[in-house]
């Protein structure tokens, strides 16, 4: 965040990788809890979905900071991941 403040007057690039959602599957209880009561076959790992919720929350914090620092209008955010299994468990290798 300090880097963005210091460099806000000139173009910059930030690569901000996330290891989630990925094993080891650990996330604070507050993120997994909303998914624990679901009795849906597809929800086999509430912690995995909690990780996604946590990513979404942090991405929102980044967007809010960019707006607050008046950087949002000249910024492109691209979210990518290589962790594409639907429930955190690969069934086909």
Automatic annotation (TrEMBL):
> Per its record, what are the GO molecular function terms?
metal ion binding; sulfuric ester hydrolase activity
UniProt keyword list: Calcium, Glycoprotein, Metal-binding
Give the highest taxon in the source lineage.
Bacteria
Sulfatase N-terminal domain mapped to chain residues: 7-86
Which Pfam family, any one, appears in the UniProt record?
Sulfatase
Q: Which Gene3D superfamilies does the annotation name?
A: Alkaline Phosphatase, subunit A
Stated name of the protein: Sulfatase
Q: Tell me the organism.
A: Pricia antarctica
